[in-house]
Amino acid sequence: MIWCVDDDNAIRDIEVYTLESMGFKARGFSDGVTMLKALETEKPQLIILDIMLPEKDGTEILRTIKKNSEWRSIPVIMATAKGTEMDKIQNLDLGADDYLVKPFGVMEMVSRVKAVLRRCRGPEDNDVLAVGKIIMCVSRHNVSVDGEKITLTLKEFEMLRLFLENPEKVYTREELLSIIWKSDYMGETRTVDVHIRTLRQKLKECGSMIKTVIGVGYRLEAEN
Q1: Residue 55 and residue 37 in one domain
Q2: Which residue of 43, 145, 180, 201 has the lowest C-beta tally within 10 Å?
């Protein structure tokens, strides 16, 4: 669950909508005081916290979070319209994990959220891979698309894992044969094509993220 704290309804709604469309669960708050109250009963994965808030500003809210032993481990990304060097330094020194300068693009926001989550995960979470609405837990051999669990064969799973670990990288059919079926596999490249086709079908609307690079091979394209 990602919490978005911003008193601008339009900005907050866009943040929540974008995160949910990318496979996250998200919740919005119009002020930091209400968000702190919610922290007493629930802990999010990450907080996107605007600096300019009513009652208590974002810097004060950040200071409160980082002083609390139960909350200080929650990653916080600060959003500011100021964008001055001192604002960034002050909030990073207080414990912010990253910052966004308004106006920012929604895909920049998603990219920073994913980067902070990767840095802040505990050892037990290091095997979670996510691109767009596709989420994979390697240790549990689980894959979900837009919250719906799907079943993959071992080779399909290994191929998807490779793509999720290396989005945008193009793999030739020969490379996929070597990596997935191992170097001693003397198969034909059409074996790869068959598995790509069934993988796309199982991924449903996200199957189109696996792109054919004509004359080369395949790559997983992150949604924009």
Answers
A1: yes
A2: 201
